[in-house]
Amino acid sequence: MITMQITPELLDQHNLTPDEYDRIKQLLGREPSFTELGVFSVMWSEHCSYKSSRIHLKNLPTEADCLVQGPGENAGIVDIGDGWCVAFKIESHNHPSFIEPYQGAATGVGGILRDIFTMGARPVAAMNSLRFGPIRDEDIKDEKSSEIVNRNRHILAGVVKGIGDYGNAFGVPTIGGEVYFADEYSLNPLVNAFALGLVRREQIFYGKAEGVGNHVIYVGAKTGRDGIHGATMASAEFDEAALEKRPTVQVGDPFYEKLLLEACLEAMRAGAIVGIQDMGAAGLTSSSCEMGARAGTGIEINLDLVPQRETGMTAYEMMLSESQERMLIVAARGHDRQVAEIFHKWDLDAVTIGQVTNNQRLRVVHHGEVVADIPNAALTDEAPKYNRPQSDYPTATEDMTAKVEAGLQKLASEVGEENACNEALLRLLAAPNIASKQWVYRQYDHMVRTNTVVLPGSDAAVIRVKETRRALAMSLDCNGRYCYLSPKEGARLAVAESARNVVCSGAKPLAITNCLNFPSPERPEIMRSFVETLEGMGEVCRALGTPVTGGNVSFYNETEGKGIYPTPTIGMLGLIEHQRHITTQWFKREGDVILLLGTTQNDFGGSELLALFGEVAGAIPQLDLQAELAVQNTCLAAIQAGLICSAHDCSEGGLAVALAESCFSHDARPAIGASVNFNSSLIPHRSSLFSESPSRIIVSVKPDNVAAVQALAAQHNASCSVIGEVGGEDLRITMEGEGCIQHSVRLLENDWRKALSRSLDR
Amino acid sequence: MKFGVVVFPGSNCDHDTYHVISKVIGQPVDFIWHKQESIEGFDAVILPGGFSYGDYLRSGAIARFSPVMQAIKRFASDGGLVLGICNGFQILCESGLLPGALLRNRDQKFICEHVNVRVEHTETPFTSAYSADQVLRVPIAHGDGNYFCDDATLRELESNQQILFRYSDAKGEISESANPNGSLNNIAGVCNRERNVLGLMPHPERAAEDVLGSHDGLAMFHSMTVALREKLKSK
After folding, report:
1. Which chain A residues are Cβ-neighbours of B19 within 8 angstroms?
2. Which residue in B53, B141, B208 is closest to A448 by CB distance?
3. What's the CA gap between B47 and B14, in Å, rounded?
4. Closest residue in B to A257 (Cα–Cα)
5. CA distance, residue A642 to nearest chain B CA (Å)
6. How confident is the model at residue A2 (pLDDT cuts 50, 70, 90)?
7. ipTM > 0.95 (yes/no)
8. pLDDT tens-digit profile of A511-530?
9. Which domain holds residue B227?
10. Chain A partners within 8 Å of B50 (Cβ)
11. Does residue A264 register a pLDDT over 90?
12. Nearest 5 degrees, angle CA A745-CA A746-CA A749?
């Protein structure tokens, strides 16, 4: 074995502490070789080992009747009936996307797609949750604003193009997600990629190296020097030298991935495969030791046989390369040739590089020498776990009602008393967080595979399952501002909102995947915010009966000491029992009656209205779980009874924004107006129109069905009030008969629809 | 009667096209692997959308060298029906079965959305079930859909009535604002002189069921079925 002087500098370069190094020596019973040091450094990186989060993650609920596979595999799997299962997962690619937006985002999509089809599932839907710094000059208070804004636009454009080019060519529809803006994401954009696939229950595959003596086959693209130490890079904060790390970002090839998908599914169907795993972060290293660890076996590989794109690669480089579009397969005994034939048909390499052993070790040979020989457990279960110190995270408690009232008053002095609410609504609709995301999703093929039955723009994305009468709803949600002001409450609200969104589309919430984006866990207050987030998330998941099926933790999202908001993105999956239950947010026809489920309080802390007046502060809404469940159950029961024409969750910008969005045009009809009146018992102040109280849904129903919906609400103990009627060309909102908002829907929509392109197409 | 859907490496609308033919219009259909040198037994061939060979070099530029393309050329010259959708259209242009080329979209971005197209001529095996000047609502999804050809070719296309679809507004008016990608004369689809080869950028297979928001593409597959039935009857 090649030995090398291991110095403190070398350890530092590998992000390993002296204590961790002592532990490595103890586990091996000797000094590691240089290759082994590299292998430990990636497997023990935060990204691969979850060393700061593991002890806390185990408190999340991970059980439910529908669950087939929980956390720990490449993706979670739930049963949706009729023999069909859904594999789904979300994963971050934040660090690479800051360094190189296009390739960073593209390979994020590539990685999550492989996680899905490695389970045997054909990917049928993708979404993404994106966060960037401000893209309008007026949103930055800094003398260098135009420079920052230009960089943010560049990052956004690159990320969107990267996601589009990869998903479009691969042939998976990108059907939804979210895009948010805040200064905290200027130097730390977040790119969380979600994918979902369908698989027959009996055709699920796992990342297990079963069957001692079975051959280990390398398939897909050749190994190059790209992405070496990607996982380590993703486990450290950035400094001004971050852009010098470009070589650690991988380069994606969606065409290759498409071939890999078809070849893998074909080989699986042919019965030629025992186990399979994607070579993602830490490439050949993680796939070989994790497959062995899951099966209680070992894997021995010979690097001389690995297909290589470059000459003279060392064992260290090959083990740590993160070249994309590669998989490791354990073939069924005697099926090597069949695997090779199937991959050659798709013009792909398939080379036997080793075999399954019974010694529970990862053994690597290069040029006839053993360059690594490590117990699997040392790289997986025995990796360090830290219970990092915590200290108080300050939670905001101030009531912001007076602040927004003062803001509206100031606006009134500029535009006239009668125009204040109109103007606030117009500005909110053009605010990047609320404005139409058409500029983004128009660049994604959101219709390929012909299952997209709700086009992007409604509360949840919906695809039909062609083989059944069912459909799947999915939604990605997190309000970073809320989580910043109160991590626990913010997480509770995120889970509740994601469930509400799928309910609005006609689905029963089934399970979640999560992507936990945080700053450095080595800061005690951040660690506390992480723990509180999990408490809040776990509580609401338990109440909803939606287990956590997996996901990803991304720490160290900070640059030059400035961190992101805690951003726990929730990916909720919902099941629509019958395609006739599919519901959208858009009002359907003149004369329908508008009802509000739920009640409105003065919730302005962290609201869009408060942000419009220049502040991110205050006590955020408190989720009342009973009220939330009552509203969701009423809405779903009414949809399933065929009583509901449209349903829309009330979130950022409150009732006024939600009502406007329900009026906007979409593919099946032009813009339509609505007349709404609120009693003072429902809405105490004009500012309440913009309050962001949770647990509210706006529904429209045919006049004949109003009583039936009210009866259902009473039965579920939900508040339900008739507030208006669909029709006309204007959105008219009065309070106790007094005019508050009156504006042409067409003009409101124009501002909302064009706002992003105004900032981005210049 | 049997339809064939060609599978190039990188085709990704092959399953969707197969689904429409087998499940929606209920006709026999099979996939044709691009390495096949013969397409005997097929009565109509569809080149589906996607990114054949990753669209590297140029959209459709590599796929035209696939072995199956020689067979398709012979099939077309014998009068067989060939339909190219999106990437299929690009491949037909690259292989010389249709005139012109598809350039990068005017705004340099991939565009996925529903658009309106006007049916220009109905005396073809692909459009007989439409009415003249009918406006269809169909999706596009492409980065290279900006149709271009030289003046002489354009004159020929116009005078031979080979332009079968143009981007229009909802009322059928042809205007620059209704042109999503910068195509010459708003061209969305053209056929050859003999009218048995059609290429178009919009996706009729994505507009063949009401649950997807439009069934305006369905009549194209019905038209082909009628044409094939008549052809088989006369044999």
Report:
1. 450, 466
2. B141
3. 8
4. B10
5. 17
6. low
7. yes
8. 999 999 999 999 999 999 99
9. 3-233
10. 169, 171
11. yes
12. 80
Mean of the pLDDT values across residues A34-42?
Answer: 94
Which range among A2-11, A670-679, A750-759 shows the weakest confidence by mean pLDDT? A2-11
**A648 is an active site residue:** no
Helix A401-415 / helix A420-430 crossing angle, nearest 10 deg: 110
* Buried b / exposed e along A483-519 (16+ C-beta atoms within 10 A): bbbbbbbbbbbbbbbbbbbbbbbbbbbbbbbbbbbbb
Cite the DSSP H helix spans in A605-731: 608-612, 625-640, 654-663, 706-716
pLDDT digits (tens, 9 = 90+) for A652-668: 999 999 999 999 998 87
Q: Per the CB < 8 Å rule, is B54 touching A255?
A: yes
Best of A445, A470, A584 to mutate (most B CBs within 10 Å, chain B): A445
Alpha helical stretches, state H, B78-196: 87-94, 151-159
Interval A626-641 mean pLDDT: 98
Span A692-716, average pLDDT: 98
- What's the CA gap between A307 and A352, in Å, rounded? 10
CA dihedral A367, A371, A376, A378 (to 10 degrees): -170
Please give the full DSSP string across A542-599, using - where no structure is assigned.
HHHT--EEEEEEE---EETTEEPPPEEEEEEEEEESSGGG---SS--STTPEEEEES-
Q: Which of A623, A624, A669 shows the shortest CA–CA distance to A646?
A: A669
Distance from CA of A333 to the nearest CA of B (A): 29
C-alpha R_g of chain B: 16
Q: Are B46 and B2 in contact (CB under 8 A)?
A: no
Instruction: Return d(Cα A275, Cα A333) in angstroms, integer.
Output: 12
Q: Which residues of A touch B144 (CB under 8 A)?
A: none
Cβ contacts from A onto B, under 8 A: 86
DSSP B190: E
Report pTM: 0.96
Tokens matching residue A292? 């062995």
Which residue is closest to A448 within chain B, CA to CA?
B13
Residue A556, min C-alpha distance to chain B (Å)? 33
- Would you state the pLDDT for residue A711? 98
Q: What percent of chain B has pLDDT over 90?
A: 98
Asked if residue A418 lies in contact with residue A739, where contact means CB atoms within 8 angstroms, the answer is yes
Q: How many CA atoms lie within 13 A of A18 on its CB side?
A: 3
pLDDT of residue A138: 87
Instruction: Answer whether A224's CB lies under 8 Å from A247's CB.
Output: no
Instruction: Answer yes or no: A716 catalytic.
Output: no
The pLDDT of residue A560: 85
Read off the CATH number of the domain in which B8 is found. 3.40.50.880
CB atoms within 10 A of CB A387: 11
Give the pLDDT band (50/70/90) at residue A242. low
- Residues of chain A whose beta carbon is less than 8 angstroms from a beta carbon of chain B are 161, 164-165, 168-171, 253-256, 258-259, 346-347, 441-450, 452-453, 455, 464, 466, 579, 667-668, 761
Residue A258 has pLDDT above 90, yes or no: yes
From the candidates A14, A47, A56, A335, which is the catalytic residue?
A47
Q: Indicate if the pLDDT at residue A81 is higher than 80.
A: yes
* Residue A334: DSSP 8-state: T
End-to-end Cα distance, chain A: 58
Average pLDDT of the segment spanning A590-597: 98
The alpha-carbon gap from B226 to the nearest alpha carbon of chain A, in Å, equals 24
Indicate the number of domains in chain B: 1
Nearest CA in chain A to B142: A445
Q: Which of helix, strand or coil describes residue B70?
A: helix
Contacts of A754 (CB under 8 A, 6+ apart): none
Which residue out of B13, B93, B94, B205 is catalytically annotated?
B205
Return d(Cα A97, Cα A690) in angstroms, integer. Answer: 34
